[in-house]
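Please annotate the following for my students:
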Amino acid sequence: MAEQLQSFLRLKQVKILTGLSRSWIYEAIRRGDFPAPISIGARAVAWTEQSIAEWQALRIKQSRKTVS
């Protein structure tokens, strides 16, 4: 069975979608609080659209728990 294609997001797109800075993203990756990028070339990394969407959903869920 063929796997479904996934979209790759480069850092610029991830920053726009999350509203986070480059330094915050890489610090959060180091802490394990943000999905790590995957290598797509010798000097290029990207994130899957799905991993960012899952991270966003988790952040929304966590923020609603603290508000309640």
Remarks:
- The first strand starts at residue 8 and ends at 9.
- The two ends are 43 Å apart (CA to CA).
